[in-house]
């Protein structure tokens, strides 16, 4: 636990939207800690320090101080403001150093396929089962030199030692092909400005 980043947290006993709003004004994030059969513990996290820990790693493992007993937790869920994207609430899962957890990590394509080809990514994230002390921040898929028509599924991806895929092994991760030219719709033909105006109805002319 000493190698994990540490947060100083505060237990909280007040609840409700009004309290949560006041907490955010004070640069605190309401959070709940649960897991291993324990009763949920409601906390306040320091906004700035927490933001720095999770901005590039939504599966961060963090040591908490300020509780009755030190705790190691996995960030399980981050709720953000739909427009401002500020952190509004977090769920923290109590974990132990010797266990594995289910998490979702992004897939990143590295390298370049054969000249003139592109790798079209179909799957952006992968569900994995990984050691809590060694969760990869991403899964890299190397496409260097791959030929036209190559299709890689989850089962084809080499994962770090101790990591298992939970996503359907037949799910397509990417395919290699020549770039597709976008179909640009033709502009509608302009009306002939020299077309004769319609002849007025004879009965209308007679009425005048």
UniProtKB/TrEMBL annotation:
<dbReference type="Pfam" id="PF01386">
    <property type="entry name" value="Ribosomal_L25p"/>
</dbReference>
<dbReference type="GO" id="GO:0006412">
    <property type="term" value="P:translation"/>
</dbReference>
<dbReference type="GO" id="GO:0008097">
    <property type="term" value="F:5S rRNA binding"/>
</dbReference>
<dbReference type="InterPro" id="IPR037121">
    <property type="entry name" value="Ribosomal_bL25_C"/>
</dbReference>
<dbReference type="InterPro" id="IPR020057">
    <property type="entry name" value="Ribosomal_bL25_b-dom"/>
</dbReference>
<dbReference type="InterPro" id="IPR011035">
    <property type="entry name" value="Ribosomal_bL25/Gln-tRNA_synth"/>
</dbReference>
<dbReference type="InterPro" id="IPR029751">
    <property type="entry name" value="Ribosomal_L25_dom"/>
</dbReference>
<dbReference type="GO" id="GO:0003735">
    <property type="term" value="F:structural constituent of ribosome"/>
</dbReference>
<keyword id="KW-0687">Ribonucleoprotein</keyword>
<dbReference type="InterPro" id="IPR020056">
    <property type="entry name" value="Rbsml_bL25/Gln-tRNA_synth_N"/>
</dbReference>
<feature type="region of interest" description="Disordered">
    <location>
        <begin position="183"/>
        <end position="208"/>
    </location>
</feature>
<dbReference type="InterPro" id="IPR001021">
    <property type="entry name" value="Ribosomal_bL25_long"/>
</dbReference>
<keyword id="KW-0699">rRNA-binding</keyword>
<dbReference type="GO" id="GO:0022625">
    <property type="term" value="C:cytosolic large ribosomal subunit"/>
</dbReference>
<feature type="domain" description="Large ribosomal subunit protein bL25 L25">
    <location>
        <begin position="7"/>
        <end position="92"/>
    </location>
</feature>
<dbReference type="Pfam" id="PF14693">
    <property type="entry name" value="Ribosomal_TL5_C"/>
</dbReference>
<dbReference type="InterPro" id="IPR020930">
    <property type="entry name" value="Ribosomal_uL5_bac-type"/>
</dbReference>
<keyword id="KW-0694">RNA-binding</keyword>
<feature type="domain" description="Large ribosomal subunit protein bL25 beta">
    <location>
        <begin position="100"/>
        <end position="180"/>
    </location>
</feature>
<protein>
    <recommendedName>
        <fullName>Large ribosomal subunit protein bL25</fullName>
    </recommendedName>
</protein>
<comment type="function">
    <text>This is one of the proteins that binds to the 5S RNA in the ribosome where it forms part of the central protuberance.</text>
</comment>
<feature type="compositionally biased region" description="Low complexity">
    <location>
        <begin position="196"/>
        <end position="208"/>
    </location>
</feature>
<keyword id="KW-0689">Ribosomal protein</keyword>
<comment type="similarity">
    <text>Belongs to the bacterial ribosomal protein bL25 family. CTC subfamily.</text>
</comment>
<comment type="subunit">
    <text>Part of the 50S ribosomal subunit; part of the 5S rRNA/L5/L18/L25 subcomplex. Contacts the 5S rRNA. Binds to the 5S rRNA independently of L5 and L18.</text>
</comment>
């Amino acid at each position: 636990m000493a190698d994990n980043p540490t947060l100083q947290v505060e237990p909280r006993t007040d609840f409700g939207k009004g309290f949560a709003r006041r907490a955010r004004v004070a640069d605190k994030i309401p959070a709940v800690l649960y897991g291993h059969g324990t009763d949920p513990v409601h906390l306040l996290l320091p906004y700035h320090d927490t933001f720095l820990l999770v901005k590039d790693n939504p599966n961060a493992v963090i040591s908490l101080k300020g509780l009755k007993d030190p705790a190691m937790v996995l960030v399980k869920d981050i709720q953000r403001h739909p427009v401002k994207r500020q952190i509004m609430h977090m769920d923290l899962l109590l974990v132990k150093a010797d266990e594995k957890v289910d998490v979702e990590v992004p897939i990143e394509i590295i390298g370049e396929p054969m000249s003139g080809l592109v790798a079209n990514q179909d799957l952006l994230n992968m569900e994995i089962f990984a050691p809590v002390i060694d969760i990869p921040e991403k899964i890299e898929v190397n496409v260097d030199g791959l030929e036209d028509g190559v299709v890689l599924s989850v089962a084809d991806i080499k994962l770090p030692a101790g990591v298992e895929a939970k996503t359907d092994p037949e799910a397509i991760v990417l395919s290699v092909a020549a770039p597709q030219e976008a179909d640009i719709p033709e502009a509608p033909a302009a009306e002939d400005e020299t077309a004769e105006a319609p002849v007025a109805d004879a009965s209308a002319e007679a009425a005048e």
